[in-house]
Structures are given as structure tokens and as C-alpha cells.
Amino acid sequence: MTGSNTDFLLAVEALTVSFDGFKAVDDLSFYVDEREIRVIIGPNGAGKTTVLDLICGKTRATSGSIKFRNRELTKLRENEIVQAGVGRKFQTPSIYDDLTVFENLEISYPRGRTVFGALTFRRDAAVRERVEEIAETIFLADQLERRAEFLSHGQKQWLEIGMLLIQDPDLLMLDEPVAGMSVSERVKTAELLHRIIRDRSVIVIEHDMKFVEDIARKVTVLHQGRILAEGPMSDVKANPKVVEVYLGH
Amino acid sequence: MPSAPAPATGPAASPAARDESTLFDTKEWLAFALVAAVILVVFPLCLDAFRLNLVGKYLTYAYVALGLVLCWGFGGILSLGQGVFFGLGGYCIAMFLKLEASSAANTKIQSTPGIPDFMDWNQITALPWMWQPFHSLPFALLAVVLVPVLVAFVIGAAMFKRRVGGVYFAIITQAVAAIATILIVGQQGYTGGINGITDLRTLHGWDIRQDGAKEMLYFVNAGLLIGCILLAQFVKRSKFGRILVAMRGKEDRVRFSGYNVANFKIFVFCLAAAFAAVGGAMFTLQVGFMSPSFVGIVPSIEMVIYAAVGGRTSIFGAIWGTLLVNYAKTSLSESFPQLWLFGLGALYIGVVMLFPDGLAGLWNSHAQPTLDRLLGRRPTPAVQGPASGATQPATLPPQTAAE
To answer: Is the pLDDT of residue B10 over 80?
Structure first.
């Protein structure tokens, strides 16, 4: 169960998760560098989302190791993994409908995360400035007072990205960030992602190949819980196995 | 991106621009002033001693409803066992009062003088160890709050750390209420059984059965209730309150924002238990006894109905809901005692189906706009809220883009 210590930001080794005997992720190993943008692609059911679930603690690994800065994540609770510096965006927008955009971002601000910290939390100038700065980045500066449930689908996706940004994670995991977006929203999101991936590592799951080519340096192709291919986009695209199971469709 | 419609905030959303450092906004100030004025001035002036004591009894349930607003209304944690905490608080103070009433002189006809009468009837010949510390008033007062909080902590830790929630949690709390009743009734030598602990007389020599004492206790009760309202309002206005609302909708997201959700749930459950316990203790003091009929499933559900009728997300609604349902209960059960339980059930179904936000919801959607119009103010954004949702489809992406 103990993985080796490495210089990588994230080292996933021999990771396996089995649901009633079905191995959704099977003996998977991969490494992510500091400031690397990694895109995970693969057909439906390949285990892409499960890998993110395992890293962020939503699903518990059956065996194997996930080390973040040489710290074992498989033993930590979700909130501890977040505090270690891992942020996760879910496939469907996961935001707080009953709260305003401002409050959504404020809750994600990394301070006062204990019970008493939350009771004594003050909305001071630092918090306001940071929330406004993030809102500007995610194109929602004029929506701060609006209840999140009234946002459009694309705006909700941006809000969730903003909620992650305000945490300032070292590793950002995005599950299909442009899914369900209009063309114009997609362009804006690509621009947004380009800006936010500069000073951190990012793992992105995406089906939109144009988008993938646009942002990816290195691509991992998953198939049936295993790695089918890994490397620069051009190599992966030329790989006959990848074409057969995924790109050919 | 199409131009955005005017910002809309519903009643649950607090505008971020508003000064967060004050405890109340203008509307909440008015609501608070109204509750305080009615409880502290109108009732004592208009009601005779008997009715005032009755209202004082109703208000002890308002503590429970207040706790449920935080726990259930904001946090989404439905507890069907708040009667347990109400009862524990009530029993703790009743034990002290009973010991004081069972002096050797008062109980000299018993075979063992100096112990509570029901123990003597059950052939118990010495005061049980768990009763011993209740000779001390400071201990009893501390126990009123600490014992229920400890029980809530154990239940909360056991459930929330294991991520038991929703309906399952509600059923378990209901089972706890049933177990508590069975234990109290079954162990009558130690608890007074089905009759409870009765014939309470004095508090440190002060006769609590006199009208003057009852009036005094009414004001103590009202003062404590206002204190609890302020505390609840503080929790609501803090980031903790917003996290409760966030947890109600998206518990997982709260975890992935770096919070330990279980700790927040345990805290709010313990706070609700503490409120209920203070209510229970004040009940015992004002009514003069405590019995398992305030602990079990039926009273616990009744307490949930008070909060539901008042509006489960409204701190002030909880107070009005409690008063209204209890007034109806007293009036109805005087004339049709058998019908009350049916009436209560119908009331609960009616509230859930027809106006889920209770009295507070009706106030916000009907009375408030009228009031605003009369005062020449803009209608509240609450009515505009849903309407702005209609513009939403325009901003939704075309389906083809997703493919």
C-alpha cells in the first residue's frame, strides 16, 4: 500500500478500486508534475471520473497509493485533502443554490473552516477583495448579489470554478468543465482555464477534442480502468489502439 | 452571454452588501421587537395569573422549536426526538426540586424518610448514587444543559461521523425518544415512572407554587427565551449559518470546500438540544412536575409541528407557531379532547402540502408586500425572485452545442 516518495506533485501508484468485484480502476499508476496540465480522455465507463473521486477522497481505494507532495491521501478525509491543496470541480455544477454568488465564494474562502472559526468569521476587507477579484475572473462581478440558483448553466460552471480558485489549490481537478456550454461560453471558459492553470497543476477530464488539443501538453488515455496510452497529444492521436477504442468513434 | 436580469434575492439569501456586523437588519429588528413586546409587555398586562402561567408553559416549547429552526430549517437535520432533551432538562431540575421537597421532616411517615416518595413506594431504601449530586443547585443547573448536550453529542457523533442522515437520522432519533420513554416508565423506583416527578414545592426555600413566584418565573422564562433567540440569530448571521444552509442543499460540496461536515452537524444538534433542555427546565419550574409524557414520540413530533407551522427557516416564526398551535390545542382539547391528535396530524399535512414555509412564508408572500405598499416602499425582492428565473432559458446553452 505504501507508494514511493518522488519529486512529483502527485504520484498515483498501483491504484485499484473494485465495486462488487468489478474493477473500475485497475492497477493504475501515473504521475503529475508541478505546474503540469494533464488531460485524461477515454470512452464512457473508462474510470476517468472514478480516478478523480479516488484522489479527492469521495471514493475509497481498494488498494494502491495516492501521494500528494509525498503525503498519502488515501487515508485522509475529504476536507483534509482539500486543506492539503487539492480542489475538485464536479461534472454537474455543484454550487449552493440557496446562497448568493458572494456567499458561495465566501464559504469557499480558505479561512474559518472549523466550527468556532465559522462562528467567529468576519467578512473583512480581505475577504471582500478576494471574492470580488475572483468574481471578476469568472465573469460574475455583476452577479454577486444574485442567488446562485438563478444563474445560467454556464455561469454555474464558472461559479464552481471560482469556488475552487478562491481555495487556491496546488492541484485543480476539473471534470468536463465545458460540457453543456454554448459556443460563446466555451470560448470564454477556455480563456478562463488558460489563465488559471498558469500557476498550478491541473487534471482535466474532457471529451471535446478541440478543447483538449487546445490546452493539453500531455494526455492520458484510460480504457477499462487501465492506461491505454500516455504522451503528447500528437502521439496519442496517432496511436492505433486509441483510435480504435476512442477517437475512431 | 446575454445581459443579465436585475439581481434577485429570495428571502433565504442575505444580500452580501448588507452590513454583516450587526445582529439584525431592519426587518428582523421589527420582528424581534414585536416578539419581545408581546412576551414581555402585552401578555403580562392582558392575561390573568392562570393564563399567564399557561402562556409561560407554551413558551417553554418555543425553545425546542427555536432549536429545530437551526437544526432542521437551516441545517436540514430533522430530529424527531427533541422531547428527549426537553425531558432531560426538565428531569434534571425536577430531581433537585424533588430532593428539596423530600426533607426528612416532610417525609417522616415513609419507611425510609428523606428520599423521594416514589422511591419509598418502590421499596428503595437509600438514595441512588445518580441522585446524590442533585442536592446541589449549581450542579443541577449545570446538568440541565450539560446532560442533554452530552447525550446529543454521543448520538450526533455516532450518527454524523458515520454519515447517517436524512430520513435514517429522523427514524433513529424517534427510536431514541421511544427508548427514553420506556426506560423512564420502566425504572419507576429511580425516575417516578409514568407519573413522573411530581409534588415539587420550593426552589432554595422559595415556594414556586405561589402566584407571585409563577409571575417571576414567567419573566425569567421570557428573558431566557429572548437570550436564546439572540443566540440563534447570532448563529444564523454568522458564516456558520450560511454553511448550515449550504449543507442542507449540497453536503458533499461543503466537504470539498474543506469543512468537516460532521462537526458542524454535531454542533448544531447539540445547540438545539441545549435550547430544548432550557425549555424543559423552565417547564418543570412553571408547571411543577415533569413526566415521560413530554419525552416520547408524540410530543417530539408535536414540537416539530410547532416549527413547521411557524415556518421552519424563521426564528421568529417558531415562536408564533408554538404559541398558535398550543393555543389551538388548549381551546380544542377543552371541547373535543379526542379530536386533537387528528387535528394535529391534519395540521401537519396541511402545512407541508399547502404552505411549506409556514406562517413566516405566508407573511413574506402576502402581508409584507401589502405592508410595504401601504408604507410606500418598493415591494420586496422576494416576490420578484422566481420571476427572474423565467429569463433563465435564454441563457441556457443550445442543446446542439453540448453534442
So the answer is: no
